[in-house]
């Protein structure tokens, strides 16, 4: 239960603390059928308390200024006209849907709520105001679908109701829950690139990292830190909220995710890295699309673990510790200011197609280059661990470089996700695995 709610039961808006709810809602004696269902205190809360203390949640695009705060509502001040009218309309719609309590992030939120916001939205109905849309055709250009926080509000809400710019229902159906409107969900799926299955039955957790980051990559937040904080619930992780830390927030989020996940494709990103680690992207925007259709098919071993890539990578004080199949090669500068990585036959028995590389001028500080193949198949060759590569397949890789003074290979930032294609024929190739700290 949130620390603050808006009481809307008597045509007015009044901020109430959680501890004050017992004064507004008097306990009642359960009837016979309810008594039969109550065997514990949890049963009593489910049967008697939750139906009474249900609340509607507001999802909207914040105005640049004029949103009513907790103090504004508490002291009865009408702040910005547009902001107050928007909140009043939300409360009106919540009341029409049978709710006496409401929650809005403009006047009810605190740091504890941010950390538990995914559970908050999963409780009851979420009322969405599409401020730029008068019909479903205009949805694709609505700013609501571009904001960071609205992603979790869309995914977490088990029950949701969309309203147009003029506060009329977006869909003229008898459905109380728009997530049951298949046609609407298909249209939203097209806008967001989120499957209908995920829209209707999303399950938070530190899995399918790249897919979820791609959803977030298309969205913006006003505060830099919210690019991370708005994803805490989606990945079901815990981390302190500390506004003012800037891009360090997303770095911390990725650290927590890496500690709880072993999916190699979370490293399929491109662009600027965190200023604290070359192996961690600076923001969700680094998760750009690329073609993975020719990757080896996913396969499980006898312990039901994915057989590709290092499933024991970890963060250490030296950086990301990960085993890669390292293939040495040469980086050639092209006329269009891009580069091409080639693997001469002298470096390996396997053959690879050239790799197009987009990188900045900072690449000039490196003297030697290699590819670090990430999604090799784990295997054994001559009693040693080896990375198995198969013919005519694509593999995800890092560009690695060594400076004139350096002994260790370092990850080189590229503007495109790198994949290398094997061109040999036959059964496969064994490549040595190297432990790197990136």
Task: Describe the protein in words.
By secondary structure, the protein is α+β, with helices and mostly antiparallel strands. It has 14 helices and 19 strands. It has helices at 21-24, 32-37, 41-49, 70-74, 81-96, 111-115, 117-123, 149-156, 182-192, 196-200, 209-217, 226-229, 232-235, 248-260, and strands spanning 4-7, 14-17, 55-59, 101-103, 125-129, 159-163, 273-274, 277-281, 314-316, 319-333, 339-342, 355-357, 366-373, 377-381, 384-389, 394-403, 410-412, 418-421, 429-437. Strands 9, 10, 11, 12, 13, 14, 15, 16, 17, 18 and 19 form an 11-stranded antiparallel β-sheet that branches. The longest helix is centred in the N-terminal third of the chain and has 16 residues, at 81-96. The chain starts with a strand and ends with a strand. The mean pLDDT is 89.
